[in-house]
Records
---
Amino acid sequence: MKSATVSVIGRPSAGKSTMVNTICEMKVSITSPIPQTTRNKIRGIYTDQRGQLVFVDTPGYHISEKTINRKMQDVTVSALGESDIILYVLDGKRAPKKEEEVLADLIAKAGVPVVCAINKKDILTKAEEEDMEFFLRNRFPSAPILLTSSKDDDGIDELLIELFKLAPEGELMYSESEYTDQNLEFRISEIIREKTINTLSDELPHTIFVEVSDLEYDEEEKKVWVRAFINTEREGQKGIIVGKGGENIKKIRKESFKDIKKIFPGSRLELDLRVKAIAKWRNNQAVLDKIFREMNK
Ligand SMILES: Nc1nc2c(ncn2[C@@H]2O[C@H](COP(=O)(O)OP(=O)(O)OP(=O)(O)O)[C@@H](O)[C@H]2O)c(=O)[nH]1
Ligand SMILES: [Mg+2]
């Protein structure tokens, strides 16, 4: 049996979370077109007859001095040294510049075997593919370099073959039926954050964090009750989240409801969703500590 931890590293919006979800055939990690969607290390577990790969999705690596971005950078950098293999995901549409060079150097220095995935194959030109291959071949002379589409599940089987080749022999770390180890509150808050990000646009998504304040799950009665807060930074932003006549919040609620139900099949769900302003939370150490603490069971 093979068994390995695989850190999934790349710049924002490269398609890391989509890739983990495609591999695990489950929505493990939230995705959106807005860069810097993932904020924590999110584990997605893949098991087949070859063994088990535990993927650790990470926040997109982005160079910035803002406190929250530095926290996210720390999360990503800490994942580099903790894994058996690094899966380096690149957005093939974005020609590598300074930020990609800095990240590639960090990965090369980690002393861990690397597999590179040039992602978004579905929309790449031949020239874009070749430019990326050239960039990677210089820095990772012996690493497998694959073309993938996380969105279309293309090149993913080949990627798994390369990862299993590099994986050490070992016992399974999780049972075969597990696909993530996030706690329920965190999964619910992430679903609501995803629906909020995808309902709103522009900068607002970065000013949001979601907190599940109450969760009651009665397995016998098959009843779930959730109260969650969508927190933003200013009173004025609350109205944008709620929307005209409540249209945004209704959409966020409806879509969150659908996905949360999937976690509790057959149960009756009550979702109490509220919007709150917490001034400058992105500089508030207590809030940041809450957001960045480990979200596993
Ligand atoms: N065309 C195309 N789009 C993709 C592919 N993979 C992901 N995307 C899109 O790229 C955007 C970002 O995807 P995510 O999976 O959230 O990217 P990420 O790397 O996890 O982003 P962060 O969490 O912000 O670092 C979304 O709009 C995806 O639908 C792909 O293979 N092809
Ligand atoms: Mg992500």
---
Amino acid sequence: MNEDDTPTPNGIRHLYVHFPFCARICPYCAFYKTRGNATEVARFCEALVSEARRVAKKFPLTLETIFFGGGTPTVLSTSQLKNLLGLFHEIFDLGALREWSIEANPGSVSATKAAALRDFGINRISLGVQSWDNQLLNLLGREHDVTQAEESFHIFRSAGFSNISIDLMFALPRQTERQWHHSLQKTIALQPEHISTYCLTYEEDTEFLARFARGEFAINDETEARFLELAMTTLERVGYEHYEISNYAHPGFRSEHNRAYWQGADYIGIGPSAFSTLGLERWQNVADHHEYARSLFANESPVASIEKLTPAMKRTEHIALGLRTREGIVADTVDQNQAEDLVSNGLLSLQANRFALTRAGKLVADSVAEELL
Ligand code: SF4
């Protein structure tokens, strides 16, 4: 399959932590998230620590990356964060840790909180800016405005973070190319080390999907491709490497944690709704923070479902995820004739025995992957 998809003798190297609470629920979001009161949040944190102890006992972990996402982990107070992160240091061996990311939303950040995150070993911030346009932020239901987003970025910089990623969204309803260009330029001016750009998708069980179904919003493949192309051109011109369809980084600042997912590495996820994958087995925790806490306090497993992966499923994932990366996939994992056709059509390139998407191929990445599956 690929070079990284078996557990190393040294153990599992990647941990995902899902924090399910947000200050406000965005109408396009399909992650498991909810608004919780102080009692629920405190109870959840206790349960999370309990699961952390459980997995540290059960699995050989030599953590190199941790991604603390959600939800919005930075809605925790500074003392709650200190307590939680301090316990992670006690529970896990973090001697080999290279990257510890946290998702942060503008509006939930203070200088004290940023300093605490830094002191407790977090070294990468993923800041959910989404847009530098107040009208679009309003449409997205975000709780922050442009001024707060800029302030939050500077708070993290002043606290000493030298690896900050900014998340942006494109192909939003009524978003113009001019607005998207402005968002990209504004982001570049701040000089983050990493930028993620996500095309809006209309996900099940979201208010945006209902609005789409009512005909209030529309999808236009050509517009999406133009926005992606504008991002590629604008960001590459100023030195960001386009190392995955949705991700750009200055040299040396690619996300190690996400790279592990894309390469099919094993990982453990804790928290409600979190997935774990170990070899040919994938399981998911219950997507309900009440049930999650109840099971852990009763000393029961919070796992709700287990899936056996077949080599064919792993191959499909390898192609779909690997193809999105700059390195592409090992040539002999796909049908040579089909791949050669895509090379002739200018959608794939073949270099050092790997097929990778060309610039034109990136604009139709999903259909290229479908051809190869
Ligand atoms: S802040 Fe993030 S996780 Fe929370 S609702 Fe919005 S998009 Fe979803």
